[in-house]
Every structure is written in C-alpha cells, then in structure tokens.
Write a structure and sequence with these properties.
The protein is α+β, with helices and mostly antiparallel strands. It folds into two domains: 59 residues, Double Stranded RNA Binding Domain, CATH 3.30.160; 65 residues, no CATH class. The chain is built from four helices and four strands, in the order E-E-E-H-E-H-H-H. A four-stranded mixed sheet has the order 3-2-1-4, with helices on one face. Strand 1 and strand 2 form a beta hairpin. The longest helix is centred in the middle third of the chain and has 36 residues.
Amino acid sequence: MVEEAVKTYRVAYERDESGWWVASVRGVRGCHTQGRTVDEARRRIVEAMELFVADARTAKIVDDVKLPTRAAQAVRAYATLRRKAAQEDRRAAIAARRAVRMLRGGQLKMSARDAARLLGLSHQRVHQLTQAEAEGR
C-alpha cells in the first residue's frame, strides 16, 4: 500500500473594515473568500480551494488568524499559562499517587475516606489511585 503525502496549505484570516473575516490561501494565487466568522471563512476557503487545487478536501489546512497585537499577546499568554497548568496538573497527579500510597499503605493503613479528607479528594478518587497503584499503573 502506497501512502500519498497530504499537502499542507497555510490560510491567512484577516478582519476587513466591515468586520468580515477574509481568508486567503498562501501560495495559491486568487484563492480567497470571506465569512462573518473565522469558522465560516474556513468552510468557504475549502470550497474555494476546490476550484484551484485537486486535493482541497484531503489537504491539511494550517490556520493563521491575524489578530491585533494586544489580542495576540493575550492569546499567547493564555496558551503559555495553560501549558504550565497542564505540567502542574501532571505533577499534582504524581504527588497524589505518592500521598495515597503513603497514607493507605505502610504503617498508617488509613481508610480511603480519611486519606481523601486529608488530601481534599473524594474517597472514590482515592480508591481509583489505590487500585491503579495495585495494578502497577
């Protein structure tokens, strides 16, 4: 079986004076459209691409939404904080498993309800973590 490479097209979206989003495909001269929303412009640009390129329906589209500087900065700041929060969530999950292991095992042998109260978790979550530990996950 031969896999065919999926072509990638970059699409720029810019707001015009009347508030519409104008979408244009980079590298495909004359291929542009507009929509009231970015989503609508994206749907329409695929339709427009069908007039210019054979692989429009299967192509990968990379969206490049042009925003005012302050809005772009706000989006980047959010994305950065979201990545950091995800990393902290992973670290917290590891710490929760370790704490449950310490509280439920060894000399303490605490009940799931007592461990949950100390950790600020539901007793069901403590049971899940205990079970995962027992299964080696």
